Amino acid sequence: MINIKSMHHILRLALFTAVVFACLLCQSQAFGKEQIAVEDFRGKTVQVPVKINRVITISDGLIEGVMTRLGESHKIVALGSQCIPRVWAYDIPNKNGGSFPYKEGMNTITYLNPNFKSLPLVAKFGVGISYERVAELNPDLIIIRTGSCALNQGRDILDKTIGLLDSLGVPLVVLHGPNATPDPGIESISREIRILGKIFQKEDQALALAQYLASCVMMVRERTEGIVPDQQKRLLLLGLSPKARTRGGAGHVKGVDTLQTYFLEQVIRAKNAFTGPGAWNILNTEQLLALDPDLVVLVTAWGYHPPEELYFAPYYEGLQEMRAVKNKAVVALPWTPCNCEKRLEYPIDIMVMAKAAYPERFKDINLNQWLLDFYQTVYKVDKKTADELLSRQWMDWVRKE
Question: What pTM did the predictor assign?
Fold first, then answer.
């Protein structure tokens, strides 16, 4: 028979065993949560640390923009785009004398993160990646986005680049920008945002951001519904690139297999006046005049190009004979340095083009107020900061509406 003393001993031993087991279980669970499994755009499951302090990013602003919204941008220790830290200025010449000055242009995330100006660069357009520098910076995580200017090569080169980064032994998450996919669309941008949200354990915030951007697109899509093909405007996506001029052309045009054409056809219900493929086609003056678009949309292309450049620059006198130019049917998209892939501001492009193409369907939209609301919602900033972001993207012309 077990006496009272033995019973107490057994109970104490059982209690001690239970406590030890519970502690071991907690330790096991904690160890299991030291990493998060994230599936990237390769279909590869990457074990990402729960505690992330040092991140290297290679993109033109999408990754950094989402991290800014999530409150994680302070963890970035190096960048992969020379266009992020730079501040830009242009003087557009006027054939009648003088010029049109544009000052203090920059990536939105640079204004929101002034420290980005002093971060080291591990990659640049046309130079490649410094793998030694990446290793020296001892990152916890590397996040890259193919299609960005530093990662805009062919598939064989990209695969080699990704393989070399993988060989460093640091968790590597690979995202693909829309133009780096076979069928460009905005759904992939939403997926990129959600993956970043999972990495930083802020999935609800990331989902809210993706849903807001999608709602901006849906609003435009709903307003342009019912525009039949023979009533659709023909838009020319034109980059007044100095690079094109040095090669005997007048500018670059976006083709039908780009995300910009997806915006036109699937959201705005308009047509691309240029029906060929490719993102950076060089056309001369005669070829551009022959396209005869209803509206010219000026995109970032080796610099910022406002309507004044097409209207008044002496080197574009030939294009000033274009019907759209004579009708002052020219609009400029926001300043987007390193415009290889779209980032969080892509709904602005859609709204600007839609309102210019079909003003009667958007007459109740004050573009100035819409932009302020957009910046405030996307980046969770106050109105004053939103107003500064508007100016940094050289969208001040909307204030005249």
Answer: 0.89
